[in-house]
Amino acid sequence: MKRLLTLAASAIALSATPALAQDVVIANATVVTGDGSEPIQNGVVMVENGRVTYAGTANGQSFATDLVVDADGAWVTPGIFATVTTLGLVDVGAVSESNDSRAGGAPFSASLDVAPAVNPNSQNIMIHRAAGITRAATTTLPSASIFAGQGAIIDLDSDGTPIVKARAFQMVDLGEGGARRAGGSRAATYTLFRASLREAQALSGGGTPQTTEITADGEVLLGRFDAEALKPVVAGTQKLYVGVERAADIRSVLALKSEFPRLDMVLVGASEGWLVANEIAAAGVPVLADPLDALPTGFDQLASTQSNVGRMKRAGVKVGLNAASIENPRRLAQQAGNLVGLAKMPGAAGLTWGEAFASISSIPADISGMGGKAGVLKQGALGDVVIWDGDPLEVTSVPTKVFIGGVEQPLDSHQSRLKERYRDLDESDLPKAYDW
Amino acid sequence: MTKKVWIAAASAFALAGCATTGSANTAGDDSGSDDAPRFAAQTEAEGPFPSTYNAYPGTPTALVGATVYDGAGNRIEGGTVLFRNGKVEAVGGSDLSTEGYAVLDGTGKFVTPGIIDIHSHLGDYPSPGVQAHNDGNEATAPTTPDVWAEHSVWPQDPGFSRALANGGITSLQILPGSANLMGGRSVTLKNVPSRTVQGMKFPGAPYGFKMACGENPKRVYGGRGRKPSTRMGNFAVNRQTWYDAIEYANNDDAKRNLGKETLKGVLEGDILVHNHCYRADEMALVMDMAKEVGYKVTAFHHAVEAYKIGDLLRENGVCSAIWADWYGFKMEAYDAIMENAALLQKEGACVVIHSDSQNDIQRLNQEASKAQAAGARMGIEISDADVIGWITLNAAKAMGIDDMTGSLEEGKMADVVLWNGDPLSVYSRPEKVWIDGALMYDAMDRKRRPVSDFELGQPGEGDVK
């Protein structure tokens, strides 16, 4: 049931959570489009049939909608796009039965596919939805081999069908961890990597693989199914996320492009990226960087600095923030905010506010193959819209409303229920277990 | 026979020749007297491994015009902070005379006491985090009260300088890890670069004692098929160990025992118990065990369920050292909520925000801010000035150093941070940090930025980190 309104019309507060997508107009908002531009005062966001139809300054036009939300000046942004995560794969990290992020005992590596494993009812999904994360790249992590498997793009909505795109990318570790898994050295890593892609090429051409599997000490580093799974990687139709930190390792990875020109690579981590920023930019390879790593946590990260992202950005590298390096993905906004604060420090390189927000919205979405569809408010984008109670990059702010695909989402979780139960400690009538 | 005598004489000679300042071990006058033992180590009371920390020189300084949080719950707009000879001399308004001080205009900026992290493993788990640096858990027996964290600290850990420059950390407690029920002694450090750990030791700080309840000890030892493998096993081992310690403490003639000396120090109240414990029900049991045995728990660390027993913690006078938003990484953390700190504060219990992280120690101010905001959303308003206390004076109290630092009050150490904006905002950073009145970090002067030996000649040396 649509009502014809103009933007000047008085707003009607939202009172119930709709189960279905409604057309919605959010007016009187500080609109962040997510494309790197600065916020727009007195802006409007319109969503119809689950898609954004307009985001920008109010211009007095009329529109038909089910619902008008008066943001009362609040910040309105696209949903945060979190990558690289294990959202939906883990209930409790240290409880192995609940943790599907690694498969060290499996005879498979590259062929692992997270899509059927993602649990949309995981508390981690609910908590991160309430933190304004609407979509994510989620993946298993390298365990038995250098190949982690095939990650998916998921949404964090409550409809029980999280997979947006299955097998969206393959991940490989070509840093220190990869060296350990390949047999103990970087030389072994590259040999295993090349051998694996050669097998995939042989299969792609309709040929036969050279070997049924590659093993070491009884561990299967690459089996027939894994080689099969690498066909889209070698053909460039599936993205390859490469975990790598050291400047020299980054150079070696970039050099692979001359050998396998169709690889569609994304660097993940890249703590020393700033040392080779011009080369990364020239190669046109995007980076998902660890934003606040400032310590030489390994011999491959001696040059770690919080200025890494800013310096790569200034060199022309497309840089999004990597969620894998932080305590939990809901800290992405905090990480981005820190890069804004860093910009004020003499000798440091940070980001503008707009750039910082883009680094957790449109840029990771674009790197994930969802450019123009997620992490951005513009015509045709998915209706992932978040209304905040303050500056979204400030540690004190949280969403007040979250729409995913135009549907307003519940923001409750195990955490919010516990908070309400223990608002007081009164058990004079009944134990806390009856308080629900 | 002759040869043996010769060796003994030679080594005694060498020892005496080297020990130019010591006295305990010198063979000395060996006249055959029966009453004086020939060899004697220093006693516990003599304090081996003493602090050699001395404050570095500073300039008498007046910080004026900034918003001052004194750490003790007060906020002064346009405040004045005066310090000289390493001590805070006065804190007040713009009417305070600044004559005789170098005046630094802090208009638009903020001043807090030095930030204190009650829970760190810097130096014991330093960067780079390689196996050769893995010095935080003596995970070879369920109780190791004999080990001292200071003997593992690598002063060259680059993490100290990041904690200083990015986090404004001026004091921190280094704890043994949580593999053991009794992990050993902690050490409190001033966050100054030093060639030796003694050069960082906080003069006069009491020792802490690290204990751990719950999953970690039972996993580590249960995994080896030995006791404890359950929570009841945890308590059994703890209680027996305490009973043995009581026997030792009651016996003046007992043979010296490093572990029991530490436990005796706890029973006497000289060593403060810092107990890693997540779950509310387990914390309640630990407090009963402490009563049974006769010691006091100073603080529960990682107390993610403290909000369920704020009343009990208040009644027992136990602080909760907690994170703002760590969640779900282990079963014990499944009920973590961001409102933990605020609910505790509302109940009148003691709150400390801690890091347990080489990264979060660089942003404890932001963690405190997050916890404050979560409370505000459920209607618990806690002033900014009180929240700063979570990472300054409350931490100092729980570490037993609050008569020396933790707040900007006359006579206390001039441990001071000048922030370039509201310290509870994500956009703010320390601009200058003084420790005992000495300027140890200055964002405006790249030479006032420590570079550890490890970083010299490495990529990124001396960079803004």
Query: How helical, in percent, are the residues of chain A?
Result: 10-25%
Name the beta content range of chain B: 15-25%
Supply Rg of chain B.
24 Å
Helix run count of chain A: 12
Helical run tally of chain B: 11
| Gap between N and C termini of chain A | 35 Å
**Strand count of chain A:** 20
- Report the count of strand segments of chain B: 17
Main beta sheet of chain B: strand number and arrangement?
A: 8 strands, mixed
Provide the structure class of chain A: alpha/beta
Largest interface: A-B, 57 and 63 residues
**DSSP strand content of chain A:** 25-35%
Structural class of chain B: alpha/beta
Rg of chain A, rounded, reads 23 Å
What's the mean pLDDT score of chain A?
93
Shape call of chain B:
globular
Low-confidence spans of chain B: pLDDT under 50, at least 5 residues? 1-28
Instruction: For the record, give the distance between the C-alpha atoms at the N and C termini of chain B, rounded to a whole number.
Output: 63 Å
Question: How would you describe this protein?
Answer:
The complex is a heterodimer of chains A (436) and B (465). With 436 residues, chain A is an alpha/beta fold. Helices cover 24% and strands 25% of the residues of chain A. In chain A, a hairpin with a 2-residue loop joins strand 12 (213-216) and strand 13 (219-223). In chain A, helix 2 crosses helix 3. With 465 residues, chain B is α/β, with parallel strands linked by helices. Chain B is built from 11 helices and 17 strands. The longest helix of chain B has 20 residues, at 231-250. Chain B is globular. The relative contact order of chain B is 0.15.
SSE map:
The complex is a heterodimer of chains A (436) and B (465).
Chain A: E1 3-6, E2 24-31, E3 40-48, E4 51-57, E5 62-65, E6 67-70, E7 75-78, E8 80-85, H1 123-130, E9 133-138, E10 147-155, E11 163-173, H2 176-182, H3 186-204, E12 213-216, E13 219-223, H4 224-229, H5 231-235, E14 239-244, H6 247-259, E15 265-269, H7 277-283, E16 287-289, H8 308-314, E17 319-321, H9 332-342, H10 353-358, H11 362-367, E18 385-388, E19 399-404, E20 407-408, H12 414-421
Parallel strand pairs in A: 2-6, 2-7, 8-9, 11-14, 14-15, 15-16, 16-17
Antiparallel strand pairs in A: 1-5, 2-3, 3-4, 7-18, 9-10, 10-11, 12-13, 18-19, 19-20
Helix pairs in contact in A: 2-3
Chain B: H1 2-18, E1 61-69, E2 75-84, E3 87-92, E4 102-105, E5 110-113, E6 115-120, H2 159-167, E7 169-174, E8 182-185, E9 187-190, E10 208-212, H3 215-222, H4 231-250, H5 258-267, E11 272-276, H6 280-293, E12 297-301, H7 310-316, E13 319-322, H8 340-347, E14 351-353, H9 364-377, H10 384-390, H11 393-399, E15 416-419, E16 430-435, E17 438-442
Parallel strand pairs in B: 1-4, 1-5, 6-7, 10-11, 11-12, 12-13, 13-14
Antiparallel strand pairs in B: 1-2, 2-3, 5-15, 7-9, 8-10, 15-16, 16-17
Helix pairs in contact in B: 4-5, 8-9, 9-10
